[in-house]
Amino acid sequence: MRRWASRVCLWAVCAGTVALADSVTLRNGEILEGKARQWGERVLFWDRYGQEHDFHREEVRSVQYQRRPEELAKPNLPDLTVRYIERLPRDPGFHGGFVQYDLPGKKDLGVLKPEASQYQLHRKPGEKVTFIVHILNAGPAPAGAFGYRISIDGKPVAAATIPGLKPAEEKLVEVPWAWQTGQHEIKVELDPEGKLKEITKLNNTFADPIRALTFFFAVHRTTYETFSQVLNVVDSFNFEDWAQYHVHMMNYLFAESKWPSAPNGIEERVRVDKIIVVPECDERLYVKDQRRNGDPKEVIEYNGNWSFGKSELDNTRRWALSVDWGLPHELGHQLGLVDIYQLNVDPWQNLVRRMDGTYATLKHFYPAPATMMHWHGPHIFSEFCAGYLNQTLGRPRGYFGDYYYDVPDKCFLKVFSISGKPVPNAKIELFQRSAFKPPHHFVHGEPVSQGQTDANGIWLMPNRPAPHHRTLSGPDFKGYELKDNPWGHIHVVGFNAMLLARVEAAGREEFYWLRLCDFNVAKWRGAEKEYTHPLRTRFPDAGAPEPPQKLLVNYSMPIERKTLELWWDRSPSPDIARYNVYQKVGDGDEEVEPFRLVAIVDPARFRPDQRIGHGGLKYHEKFEEHGFYTLDTWFAVTAVAADGRESGLSETVHVPWLGEGRRAAVLPDGRVIFSADRHPSLYWSPGNSGVREFGVRTTEFPVDPYGLCADGDGNLVVTDAGNNQVLVFDPKGTLVRRLSKQAPRRESKSAKPGEFDWPCDVATDVAGNLYVAERDNHRVQVLDKTGKPLYMLGGDKGKGEKSFDRPTAVAVCGDHLLVTDEGNRRVVLYWLKPDGPLFDREITELRWPDRALMTAKENVYVCDLGDNTLKVFDRGSKLIAKHEALEAAFEPGHVKLDGPRGLVTRDGRTAYLVTRFPVRTLKVRLD
User: Fold this and answer.
1) Does one domain contain both 452 and 517?
2) Is residue 925 part of a domain?
């Protein structure tokens, strides 16, 4: 349905020498100037010579609509258009409370009111209907006499002459028709002989599908009036053309949404059946306009409605001259389509733990983002949406997401090894994102199902109890039945439509997201009774060789090259013919973001006593289908025997997508945990020049760790500067207590005792008291271990003995408190006395100081980002040493300092700090 496209072609032919100012920027960087029109996934373009170009949206980086001043001025001419075509009698819709979701015992189940059965859902063949065509003169000048022609399926059904229309005058033309089944089209042509000179001829032809779900539009009077003053994206000056353009384009997107279960696209169609102008966009004021006979107890006669709120002239000027990609998305909701982005899971919402007890920091981002109900934009509708709309063709709308219920009777998982063979006896646990049990929208850490694969690598997912429920079906459309299934009680919005499978075999574990919609689509593709979902793992087969060991990364310089060398010890197994190097990019699961083979290494190139390696490996490399995952990169190596058997993956090297480290703390087990400029994780070095993640979780908000220290109980105290929080976590990352009194958000900043404004570091003393540096309150607040405020130091911005300018770091060393006063470029030292801190001295020869430490000899070590050094000052505050490189703490070699931060010690003998990317943990022996 390219009516608007064909009209633009007519425009291009007639334009002549009119200045064209639209610009289209292609992916290759080329900029085209001319006339642009977006039409679904296409960008239609006419250059200054009138030549037509047709680009797929993926070829285009941006489209910018621009008009010369002479084009923006509204000509003093008439402009004929069709506002909309309504049809009487209308079919009922079941919005407006006819489908109930809050009945006792039926909560969140769509229950149709019994009185819905009294309504005739569709017209019968031969039944008389009347189309009412609303013809409008949208121009500022009167229109003289003009003719019109109306046809259905190309056959004339009405033609006449209208003697003329004043500006804003509307003429209604009635067209009777005997109802027919199937799809038909009504077409209206205004002034077909071309007698009138108008603002544009592009809107003189209007066509609507007859078998279509209907929309009701209410537009604020101010918006309607300002639309009449500005040029819109279809080169007219009225709201109706702009709105109809979007609805017609929605039908085009329906037709283009072709999938294996919908080879002809979406067969459903939509149209606008009513547009009203209202003084206020409050649906309570015009709900009667939607109900049959204006009776508030009657059924709504539309399958969706949308209100266009108040928009002043400047905003409307931008709005009208653009494509509102959110509109077809929102109208999709009116048809019962749910937001597919409800399937997205952020890492902080995952409470599932790995085998080592740490949180599994896994993200899920729907793997086909370029579909309309997942992402606003020039996208087709997903197969998930297409199946639903085709199965419920013509069903009155009011249900929401009931198609999630359509699950095969039996659902299986089949686990494949790295060689593609079945994996027997693999342990599987399923964890579910919660909709009904708090914490809501989190993947809970307790499995809802578990079992193991049989000899063929197959496991039957247990059907869990669900309330049995049916939604409306009819002779021509499908309803859905909720029954026992692996997801249990399915929420219609999809809040619990995600399962996370943890699969264990051969001493390894892998994680896979299971999207309910994939099982729905499998049924619609033919797996009515049984569906087997594959899990393609990197588990080895029985008898496979051992993987290589002791992987180590060497980063290539300059770091901007984003390449590295990977080295490893040989596999202890004999007869290894080659080593396969695998790379994984992104924090998704092993299906969406799998390990990809990136290199094959022949061990014969290396002496038997040599480690084996491979260089030129890229990291932080974005793949085309990457979506909104991070660019964290993992490398692993397998050993392949001469007979082709392949080991499982080696221990991985994680190259984090970080900019710089922030603060560090030493845990009782000796691990140096550090924060960095990415949440919700902390990190530590396992000794391979990569990192391991140490996730921390709350069920209220995503934590962005900034400052941290280890307390005397072995817990980790963390500040979240952006959310004004101070939190205590146990050694496994579980929240023990939240010390902040205010709500966790930036806007909650406060100077009250026990509340914070950008708390960016924390330290503890032997009594368990906490010292919190608050950058934007210019103070250090002291609390006991329960969070009770004890006293404050500073609070007034300044440079005195007890005032600060943005204190950013703090440390307690014996009987001294060290405060890094960033704004004053100094470190201030205080004696900790029973009656409060007493000023001792200050260190001032600093450019950009970070955290500082004091030794038993009262020498002070300070990280200085201003010149990338670690500076040492004696008791008299005299600079006595400056380190520009330090020994790596857990890997061989020395590292030049770059962005040194977070200086910390646990025993007073060795201190640690972290650097910018590649974030390294370095150490220094204290005097």
Assistant:
1) yes
2) no
Picking from 304, 83, 332, the residue whose alpha carbon sits closest to that of residue 214 is 304
- CA dist 782 and 801 (Å) reads 17
Closest CA to 535 of 401, 417, 688: 417
Task: Report residue 242: phi and psi, to 5°.
Answer: -65, -45
pLDDT of residue 48: 82
User: 927 near 855, Cβ under 8 Å?
Assistant: yes
Report residue 363: phi and psi, to 5°.
Answer: -110, 150
How far is 421 from 679, CA to CA, in rounded Å? 38
The residue among 402, 309, 430, 917 whose CA lies nearest residue 661 is 917
Claim to verify: residue 433 and residue 557 sit in the same structural domain: no
Q: In CATH, what number is assigned to the domain containing residue 742?
A: 2.120.10.30
CA–CA distance, 681 with 539 (Å, rounded to integer)? 27
Residue corresponding to tokens 């000796």: 670
Q: Does pTM top 0.90 for this prediction? A: yes
The domain tally of the chain equals 5
Statement to judge: residues 189 and 330 lie in one domain: yes
The H-or-E segment that residue 674 falls in is strand 672-676
In a domain, residue 910? The reply is: no
On whether residue 914 sits in a domain, the answer given is no
Q: Distances in Å between the alpha carbon of 728 and those of 141, 347, 491, 664, 732?
A: 72, 20, 34, 15, 11
Mean pLDDT, 10 residues at a time, the chain of 927 residues: 42 40 91 91 89 91 84 93 98 93 91 92 96 98 98 98 98 98 97 96 97 98 98 95 98 97 98 97 88 90 96 96 95 97 94 95 84 91 97 95 98 98 98 96 98 98 97 91 98 97 96 98 97 98 96 92 96 97 94 93 96 96 72 97 96 94 94 90 93 93 95 96 96 95 93 97 97 98 96 95 97 98 98 94 97 97 98 97 96 94 96 95 96
Strands (E), 138-212: 146-152, 155-162, 170-178, 185-190, 205-209
Q: Are residues 436 and 300 in the same domain?
A: no
The tokens for 910 are 């060795």
**E-assigned strand segments in 699-806:** 708-710, 716-720, 725-729, 735-738, 759-764, 770-774, 779-783, 789-794
Structural domain including 631 reads 549-655
One-letter identity of residue 679 = H
Q: Which structure tokens are listed for 566?
A: 């990977």
Last residue of a domain, one of 854, 879, 908: 854
Q: What is the CATH number of the domain that holds 20?
A: 2.30.30.100
Distance from the Cα of residue 197 to its chain's centroid: 49
3-state SS, residue 613: strand
Give yes or no: residues 124 and 10 share one domain: no
Of 202, 408, 255, 226, give the one whose Cα is nearest residue 317: 226
Domain membership of residue 236 (yes or no) is yes
Domain boundary among 828, 854, 880: 854
Same domain, 755 and 790: yes
State the Cα–Cα distance between residues 39 and 56, nearest whole angstrom.
Answer: 10
Distance from C-alpha of 927 to C-alpha of 925, rounded to nearest angstrom: 7
Helix (H, G, I), strand (E, B), or coil: what is residue 32? strand
Query: How many C-beta atoms surround the C-beta of residue 51 within 10 A?
Result: 10
Which amino acid does the sequence have at 672?
Answer: V
List % helix, strand, coil for the chain (3-state, nearest 5).
15, 40, 50
What is the C-alpha radius of gyration for the chain, rounded to an integer number of angstroms? 34
Do residues 362 and 391 share a domain?
yes
Closest CA relative to residue 377, chosen from 8, 63, 36:
63
